[in-house]
Amino acid sequence: IESMQSGDYEGALAAFDGALACCTGKITDLEIDICYYKAAAQYAAQDTAGALETYNAMIDYDRKNANAYYLRGCLKNLAAYDLAEDGTAYLNDAFSIKGNDAESLAYRGEIYYLLGQYDNAIKELTSAIDAGSAAANLTLAQVYEAQQDTANASYTGAAAPFGPGICPRCGSRL
């Protein structure tokens, strides 16, 4: 996660792959979370095909994973139609997500982040974290980074889903 925050997406991918390699046996929420972070790093590294492959693997594992379907669909639409401008309309349509549960707040916060509406993103993501969303921590750190807020860009809560940056199963640094 530290590598992602510093823009070292290749380093982040190596860390995520290493963490996944040492996690054997039953697939838990930890492995799923690592896959989400891996796909985000792949996309940030301009490897849309790799991110799509990661989301496909997540869907193959759990056909009811609506979040993986949603994110894969977003990437496919952006990639297939080069929706740099039209993508904004699709993101605005996503505001139909209703509810004040942690997941809905996190989704809306991510959409605000993607639209560059950072104040709204911070509000939604902070509420999502307060409601129990650990994943919203990373997006909040990305918002701070986009604002060039170095004091908050290294937001330590971004590593919350993994603990202190160490894979609890094998001890590799994330």
Descriptive notes:
The protein is an all-alpha fold. The protein is built from ten helices and no strands. Helix 7 packs parallel to helix 9 (136-146). The longest helix has 16 residues, at 29-44. Residues 158-174 have low confidence and may be disordered.
In short:
This protein is an all-alpha fold. The protein is 66% helix and 0% strand.
Keywords:
single chain; 174 residues; mainly alpha; 10 helices; disordered C terminus
Overall 3D shape: globular
Write the H/E string, N to C. Answer: HHHHHHHHHH
Q: Say what oligomer this is.
A: single chain
Quick check: average pLDDT?
77
User: Which structural class matches the secondary elements?
Assistant: mainly alpha
Tally of contiguous helical segments: 10
Q: What is the distance, rounded to the nearest whole angstrom, between the alpha carbons of the first and last residues?
A: 6 Å
- Which spans have pLDDT < 50 for at least 5 consecutive residues? 158-174
Calculate Rg over CA atoms: 15 Å
Portion of residues in beta strands equals: under 5%
